[in-house]
From TrEMBL:
Segments traversing the membrane: 12-35
Pfam families per record: N_methyl
Cited SUPFAM superfamilies: Pili subunits
Signal peptide (from-to): none
Keywords: Membrane, Transmembrane, Transmembrane helix
Source organism (scientific name): Marinimicrobium koreense
UniProt-listed InterPro entries: N_methyl_site, Pilin-like
Organism taxonomic ancestry: Bacteria, Pseudomonadati, Pseudomonadota, Gammaproteobacteria, Cellvibrionales
Protein name in the entry: MSHA biogenesis protein MshO
Length: 257
């Protein structure tokens, strides 16, 4: 009778190590794909958030600055702010006003074609302005405080104007407003002191965006003339989730002297 020993097949140590190495390589490659896909998704989400933040901030800035009186736009705070006076209304005045050239006595009212106030409260009256320096500061030569207003008349403290408007136009303006880049924040300041040389960083503001920084000069202004519009260039970079995107926006403010 033949006695045979049964032999059980198994893995050798070399085969076992080979399998472990192969599985480790597969795991590393697979993890790399997963990490890469996750990073790509995170970057896409961060960029989308940046674009959304920038779009909302720049659209608001563009909309409000376009409603400013061209000669009221100025750069302050060492380039960190753009300040302006929104137009509340305006129209045509009927008779030439006394100015420094015609030597007529000061007056306290203008008669106008029918007009309305479409925005804000019309705090100031401006006639013949040609530069922001004629609107700001303690003694503006092309700006007066509005005492009262009807649809055909505006009254103000007695004064003589620097000049008449070329088109005999007047503007009703609101308190100065400003957009500023302070401390990594893009801010909107709704009410500023017209007599101050700079925007007060400690005054009330609306936060437009965090993690914002200047890309070169944040605000670059090409000032108006009697035959040229105002061009404001905004250069701001936004950061989110390790991603940074630079945005440039040009705002054209039509000049109607």
């Amino acid at each position: 009778m033949c006695r045979c020993r049964s032999r059980q097949a198994g893995f050798s140590l070399v085969e076992l190590i080979t399998v472990i190495v192969v599985l480790a390589l597969v795991a590393i490659i697979g993890t790399g794909f997963i990490v890469s896909a996750t990073d790509s998704y995170r970057q896409t989400q961060a960029r989308a958030a940046l674009v959304n933040t920038a779009r909302q901030a720049l659209e608001r800035m563009t909309r409000q600055i376009r409603g400013a009186m061209p000669y009221s736009v100025r750069i302050t705070n060492s380039g960190d702010c753009v300040e302006f006076m929104p137009v509340a209304g305006g129209g045509i005045y009927r008779e030439p006003v006394p100015d420094v050239a015609n030597g007529a006595p000061p007056h306290t009212a203008i008669q106008t074609a029918p007009h309305s106030v479409d925005f804000g409260t019309a705090d100031y009256l401006s006639i013949g302005a040609m530069d922001s320096g004629e609107l700001y500061g303690g003694s503006p030569v092309s700006l007066a405080l509005v005492n009262s207003r009807t649809t055909t008349e505006v009254t103000f403290p007695s004064r003589t104007w620097q000049r008449n408007s070329i088109g005999r136009r007047f503007f009703l303006l609101n308190q100065p407003q400003a957009f500023c880049l302070f401390g990594g924040q893009l801010r909107f300041y709704p009410a500023q002191d017209r007599t101050a040389a700079n925007v007060d960083p400690g005054s009330d503001f609306d936060l437009l965006a965090r993690n914002a920084q200047a890309s070169g000069s944040p605000f670059v202004l090409s000032a108006a003339s009697d035959s040229r519009n105002v061009l404001l260039q905004i250069n701001v970079a936004f950061s989110e989730g390790g991603e940074t995107m630079i945005f440039e926006q040009e705002v054209l403010i039509r000049n109607v002297p």
